Fold this protein.
Amino acid sequence: MSPSMMKVALVTGAQQGIGRASALALARQGFDIAAHYLDDEAAAAALGAEIAALGRRATLHRADLSAVGEAQALVEAAHAAHGRLDAVVNNAGVFPRSTLAELSEAVWDLTLDVNLRAAAFVTQAAVAIMREAGTGGAIVNVSSVASFGTARGVHYSASKGGLDALTRASALDVARDGIRVNAVAPGMILTAQALGGNDREELERMAAATVPGRLGSAEEVASVVAFLVSDAASFINGEVIQVNGGAHMA
């Protein structure tokens, strides 16, 4: 396949965790990767080197997605760097812990701006490019089991519940353009974000009490992301796929 025909995926928050694992999974699937990061250039560069070792091209793009203009510019930069855009993984997210009583306007705004508003405007910009190209595309939003509610996370739950609704509404809007929009909703996954609220021993103790009896891995979520982007999921649209080891069966 010539470089101009190589499919391209933009992954936000690709410097670590589920974003990093998703970028690598898509690279193995044959995508060139536009990898977004915020504050860890070294980690992004290491990811780029791993993608290159897989024989795929990687470009690195820094952006603060709490600003709508930077979110839109990120998509334009990814498209400019690669000449096309076939898939987007809206993975970037923040989860500053706060009880309802402690919740501040600043924490609320940051969480909703990064987790929900950025996904909406990244999607908007990506859809415009995909529509003009006329080749369809796939968008995957990374939601969370927290959309059903989580401790110290009224703001986070609201952002992820909104992301689920955004997924369904966006899918309806763009389906006839050959663009599919789905989401994955991870449960308890061992990532830096999870460790931001509990130490590893606490997480493992909580996970032991759940149906799967263990924490999930970023790679287990990334495999579902890669499936939803692939042609194997061509008749799946507007869905939120739970990746929680069956936790909801309890």
